[in-house]
Every structure is written in structure tokens, then in C-alpha cells.
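Progress report, Aim 2. The chain analyzed during this reporting quarter is listed below.
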Amino acid sequence: MNGTNVSNTILERLAGELTELTPEARKAATYVLENPRDVGVSTVREIAQAANVKPNTVVRMARQVGFEGYEDFRAPFRDAIRQGAADFPDRARWLQDIRKTGDLGGLYADMVQGALRNIEETFGNISADDLKAAAEDIWTSDSVFTLGVGVNNSSASNFTYLASTGMTRFYAIPKAGSNPIDDLAWADKNDVLIAITCRPYRTEVVEAVQTARAQGMKIVAISDSPASPIIQSATHGFVISCDTPQFFPSSVSTVALLETLLSFVIAVASDEIPKRVATFHKRRHALGLYHAEGK
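Predicted C-alpha cells for the chain:
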């Protein structure tokens, strides 16, 4: 179905009715069968224009296969995109269509529901024991490298920043002007790599994980599928849910998981760590880095 997860039943029904349609409706049906992704992001006029038929011909085609009209026919295709089963350009077009129809309230609700669902699905499949095991490897390591590129770069950097308020030897990679494999050049079995990537998987992250594994490093992998190449190579693999109505993968569950993982690291760490965090922030207050209330 060219990248969507719309039920095959609809397209099979349309294909089965093809010979029963008028020549014009058959043209519309043929276009839909060959371009199913277009349905979810196109109006009836846009589909009609692409198929070189009149809009009412598209409506008749939809009714022929059991729908009240084009909007009902289009709904399952839109739902597929809403659930993330489409490429980035298609999902961007879907958002534009939402704007044109004025259904931004629906988009708002979808975004909120999607974020909550991602959190629930992510943590529903992860146990405290899983997090504790990863946290212990992180705490007992010599160095921790956190790798995220593209949309995941800020998540990796934020994790490293927070960890560095109480611990040393945490590094966000790739460093400016470098690449992940070079940044891991001298890492070994005493070190940990935390790697993050979701579909479409970034080549540099996959290759860095392979390199880290060859060097004996422990791998904490965060990705969106048990079949992800970095999960397959991981010492500790965490599968997140990142579905979203928008066209980039959601970072909500990634950030939540990293924050939770860091809290487990602190929990298994020595008693000095909370004191170091307190000292770090006390010094910041003394230096005037925090705005004083009342000024």
C-alpha cells in the first residue's frame, strides 16, 4: 500500500468493484489504487484533478464501495497518517490540510493524546529492573558517551548536561567538528555508549554502535522498534513509542525515558552525588546565575 497501513480491505473492495464502475469512476478508482497515500492528504477536488475526472465522479466512486461520500472514504487513510504510518512529506501535507479545513482543535487534541499515549506505551514495556541494570552499568563505567543526531541531539545534550551537575566523565557526541566514531576512538570495555535513533535510522548512529560493540563497550540503545539495528546490538535496549500527527518523530517519550534513567543512575550512585548536585547549584546561586525573586 505504498507506505500506509490503511486496511487492505478498502482497496481490495475497490479493486473488486473496478469492472462495475463507469469509465470515469474507473479512472478515479485506478488513481486511488495506484496512489493510496494521496487520499489521506488530498481534497475531493485534488483527487479529481489528479485523476482527470469531475469531483462528483470521485464521490460516486466512494459510494460504490459502501461509503456515504468522499470524506468517509478518506477517513481511514487520514487515520493511517495520524498514527504515523506515512513518510514525512505526506504527514506534512496532512497538517497543511488540517489548517485548510480549520480543524486545529482536532490537531491539538491529537497531539496531546499522542504524547500521553507514547508515554504510556513506552513505560508500559519497561521495568524498573531494566532501568536499574542500565543505571548500574552507567554508574560503574569510566566514561559515558551519549549519542544523538538530528532531532535527538538536544535530548542527548540535555541528558549529559543534567548528569554533569553531579558527575564527571559524561560526554555528548558528536562533538563540534568531529564524528561519533572518532569521539569513541579510545573508549573500551569500561565505558558506556547511550545511543538514540528512530526510523529512518541515522547511519552514523548505527555505525557508532557497531564500532562501540567491537571495542567492547556496553550499549544502552533507545529506539522505536525491537528490530532497530541499534537495539539488536544493545546491552540494554529500550523501545520507545514516538508516533505523532506531525511529520517528525515525537521526542516526548525519549526525554521522559532519559530523565527516568538519570534518576535511576543517581539512585544507585554513591551518597556523594546528591551533595555534589547541591554544591553545584549553591555555587550557581552565589555567582548570581539564577534570577533573584523580587528584583
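The first helix runs from residue 8 to 16. The chain has two domains: 8-101, 117-286. These observations will guide the mutagenesis work planned for the next reporting period.
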